[in-house]
Amino acid sequence: MKNELVDRYGRKLDYLRLSVTDRCNFRCYYCMPEEGIDFVQRKDLLTYEELDYLTGIFVNLGVEKIRITGGEPFVRKGIMDFLSTLTRHRTLKEITLTSNGSISEKQIQELHRLGIHKINISLDALDKQRFFEITRRDKFDEVFACILNLLKLGFEVKLNCVVDGNKNIADIIPFVKLTAHYPLSVRFLEEMPFNGTGKFEVPEWNHLALYDYISSHFTAIQKVQDGKNSTSVNYQIPGYQGTFGIIPAFSRTFCGTCNRIRLSATGELRTCLYGPAVTNLRDVLRSGANEASIKTEIRDAVAKKEKDGFDAEELNAKTPKKSMSFLGG
Hints:
329 residues; alpha/beta; TIM Barrel; twelve-stranded mixed sheet; 30% helix; 17% strand
């Protein structure tokens, strides 16, 4: 059988989002309650050895890109050694990271040495007080210093801003203007129903409203080419160094080109963020299954991938949605 993962709609899944922990040192309102969530016990997490073993299987099945997520990846002890181990998968073309900016200068230097040069930083406000209200942590200066350090060393940096009409609308235009001075990409995301509270309202600030709001503040906006399988629609203000994009994370207009598969820190495999776990590879692995059996489990899961996030959500309609920190984004 050809070593690739193709779903019933002909989409090739070659991008794995790999969560290494459900823990986070921030408490962003759209991700978890202020008091946090019931974090899983350490024994229930995939060990780094198990994560590396499963990564090898995914790579053998055609995965070319891996994004390390959490929780916050850098709160898990030993993360740098694990990243070093991942770079040994020679056919893996790209390793990227999503972080809240809790990356030390030493870790940034090590990432650069390992050749991991693409990082997404979650940053929802440029105002320190709004940052505190959103994250419930007084860490803005630390996060922004991290971003500047990354840019200084030539990292490709994307800032992910979740937009809430009641919290950070005043930050939208400053974020766009930030791209005048720095070669980074700011992406505005619709809010999603993964805050761990079971309560959610459909966002009024959807991708259309976001574009209309931004375009009303600038005389010219240029469309820039979107990358293959891009979830964002991307633009640039003429003369600015960076770009901005809008991700219809709740509207889900990009599902037709989805190439992603997700593995949580506890082994739950999802073919869609909105859908249920289709299997648990931790349990399969710890039951003594060999590589061939695990490959079959993964192929079977991919074969059942739903057409889009709305169909996937229907399968999960009666189950309370988990925290984004647990799901891994």
